[in-house]
Amino acid sequence: MGAMNLMAPIRRFNDFLGLIITNAVGTMWCAYAFAALSLTSLKSTLAEHSVNADVQWIAQTFLQLVLLSVILVGQNLQSKKQDDLHGKVDSLHEKHDELHRRLDGD
Predict the structure, then answer these.
(1) Which residues of the chain register pLDDT less than 50?
(2) Which residue, 2, 22, 48, 93, is the most exposed by fewest CB within 10 angstroms?
(3) Nearest residue to 31 (alpha-carbon basis) of 58, 61, 65
(4) What is the pTM of this model?
């Protein structure tokens, strides 16, 4: 039991740090920065005159860096829309219940 109590602060710190990093990476500004960073190696990749190197650069450098942030942004937007929808459904449910109470004469 004592070891579990010692791990709680570490777990809270890891959760805190993970959330900060996720919030920072999950922005379009980070996607733009990653795109700029990946473009720094494009010149040397193109200089190799190799289709294989070009494909590797696209797949392993550009797409992985940029799409990571873009996917996180999209997930955040979808989550927000779903939360908004749940709020509307809850509100409609409350109005429905209120209408039934009034019709029943309460």
Answers:
(1) none
(2) 2
(3) 65
(4) 0.67
Distance, in Å, from the CA atom of 16 to the CA atom of 91, rounded to the nearest integer, reads: 32
Confirm if 45 and 53 have CB atoms less than 8 A apart: yes
Give the Å distances, CA to CA, from 84 to 62, 92, 96, 102.
33, 12, 18, 27
Cα-based angle 75, 72, 9 (whole degrees, multiple of 5): 105
Residue with tokens 């409609």: 92
* pLDDT tens per residue, range 59-87: 998 999 899 999 999 998 998 888 888 88
Amino acid letter at 12?
A: R
Q: For the chain, state the CA radius of gyration.
A: 24
Exposure letters 26-56 (e unless 16+ CB within 10 A, then b): beeebbeebeeebeeeeeebeeeeeeeeeee
